[in-house]
Amino acid sequence: MSEPGSLIRALSGRPLPRNYHSYVINEVGLAIVSGQLAVGTVLPNDAEMMARFDVSRTVLREALKTLEAKGLVEARAKVGTRVLPQSRWNLFDRQILSWVQLSGPDAALLAGFFDIRRVVEVEAAGLAAQHRTAEQMRLLHYWLNQRSAMTGMPEPFALAEFELHRVIGEASHNPFLRAASGLVEFGVVVSVARRLGPDLSVAPEGLSAQKAPLYVALLAAIESGNEPGAKDAMALIIAADRITALAV
Length: 248
What we know:
Blueprint: H1 6-9, H2 20-33, H3 46-53, H4 57-69, E1 73-76, E2 80-83, H5 94-103, H6 107-131, H7 134-149, H8 154-171, H9 175-178, H10 181-194, H11 212-224, H12 227-246
Antiparallel strand pairs: 1-2
Helix pairs in contact: 2-4, 2-5, 5-10, 6-8, 6-11, 6-12, 7-8, 7-11, 8-10, 10-12, 11-12
């Protein structure tokens, strides 16, 4: 569940793991991120966890190794596997971000996230204005149209908005900005989720209207090679998302 789009698919509810290995990772990882397993908790021994999840020792060990690589747990001889604090988590990991979203991120975490997202995406927009290709502009206009067309459908709408930002990252020609797509997707999902009703319904005005002029201005600036204008437009988009995400 770490591929692009996996966070968006979680908008319609908790995603289903694809196999036993994914199931164990998902269940334990979500329990840690949501606080059900508190920091410092030592996980049950292998026999107990094998029985609980109905998996082999091999599957369990591989799952725990994956969680350890993500910074969620730490295995120590004669102590066991204990839960690590948030400061150790790899918050750039798309799967951890999905668990954060499912758990309901707190305001402090979201504020920190939007600080980073602003730095990353404003720079990407400026570089895209310098390096975008004709094909990338075609894709940007396509996804802008899809964003408008899918305004009443949360998942397709979120995908279109994510693709707009992802293509801008590609157009930056900076491999590190391209690799930040998990952060971008998380930002889109958080802002869309905050605008849905309790039953995941969409308001009559749809999802696209709020930022539509900002995206039009962003694409115009990128297409014309206006680096400052592209940065300003992206900064306004991130600011709008931040306000939505942190609204009480």
